[in-house]
Amino acid sequence: MPPQQAASGEERTVDPDAARLWHVTLSVSGREVPLGEVRRSLEQLAHDHPFLMTSRYADDHAEIRYWEEARDLRDAAAVALRLWGEHRASAQLPPWEIVGLEVIDRETYRQRIAEGYGPPPASPVGVHPF
Q: What is the pTM of this model?
């Protein structure tokens, strides 16, 4: 197991086969859709996949934030990039495209919050308008 530098400056050992938590922010956008339809589809997605922490939406874009458990960033990003397309029909999601993706590990997320950078922790959890 190779050592890595933790945010605190301490060295820690990382098991390359162990799953880690990744904070994912997925941004989508496209043509305008009635707000009620966007809200209903995001609520259905959250119901189908309770790992979704929070969603914010408008009539032409949305942002989904959640924690993903994956072995590495590549795996977490691959799951995130499939999320919208794979659930478009089941949750009746708008036909929008993915326009942004950020995947960061838990330590980086915590460090950003502690330093006052990045989005604050999602509160309240759920589906909300921008």
A: 0.81
DSSP structure string for 32-82: ---HHHHHHHHHHHHHH-TTEEEEEE-SSEEEEEEEEEESSHHHHHHHHHH
CB 57 within 8 A of CB 65: no
Strand, helix or coil at 84? helix
Contact 109, 97 (CB under 8 A): no
Instruction: Determine how β-strand 3-5 pairs with β-strand 52-57.
Output: unpaired
Q: Tell me the pLDDT tens digit for each residue of 82-117.
A: 999 999 999 999 999 999 999 999 999 999 989 988
Amino acid identity, position 95: P
